Amino acid sequence: MLERSRFESLALEHLDALHRMALQLTRRPEEAADLVQETYLRALRASGRFEERGGGIKSWLFTILHNTFYTRVKREKRAPIAVDEFYGAESAETTPGEAPAAWNLAVFDWEHVDDRLKSAIDELKDEHRVTLLLWGVEGLKYREIADITGVPIGTVMSRLHRARKILADQLTEFSDELGVRPGRTSDA
Q1: pLDDT tens-digit readout, 42-101
Q2: Of 39, 47, 157, 160, which is least surrounded by CB within 10 A?
Q3: Distance CA 170, CA 177 (A)
């Protein structure tokens, strides 16, 4: 069992990574901040039960974040909504492929990444996008992603393959537009 100060220092090392994922899940900065805060609160309460199992504290925190988010989603789906909220929901939605204005991808240090790639990633289904970002941005292993998302490792591999295939297809269209072909140099 870790002592509390050691646990806190280990957990806080991953604050930025958890916030990035929370932004991807919630799509709203204020909700992401609330989700991260709740994740750390739950982790602190359970810190006495934390055991190193190979994935480390990072995987454990991502699991708490993931479970907390999807528990909220399920609870919100069951909650009744006010009539004016129901009718107002249509106008508040973004159009397909459009990221909410408050959502800033700069937290990923993607300032040099083309907006089309950002948009393509944003258009992926949630399960594909989350898997891709946990693997590509956070550098987690398949087993860790499987533990976090609560799916078999084969499903993680399938989702990652599918996400990469979708992005590759979209990037092929982009390269065709620019007249650039993979493996072809401009001198040829």
Answers
A1: 998 888 888 777 678 999 999 999 999 998 888 877 766 554 444 444 434 433 333 333
A2: 157
A3: 11
Give the residue from 141, 138, 153, 158 showing the smallest Cα distance to 25.
138
- Confidence (pTM): 0.63
- Nearest 5°: the CA angle 95, 25, 71 is 120
Domains of the chain in start order, with CATH, are 1-93 (1.10.1740.10), 106-182 (1.10.10.10)
In the chain, what is the straight-line distance between the N-terminal and C-terminal CA atoms, in Å?
Answer: 62
H-state helical runs in the chain: 4-12, 15-26, 29-45, 56-78, 83-92, 115-123, 126-136, 142-149, 153-178
Q: Name residue 54's amino acid.
A: G
Query: Exposed, middle or buried: residue 176 (CB in 10 Å: 0-12, 13-18, 19+)?
Result: exposed
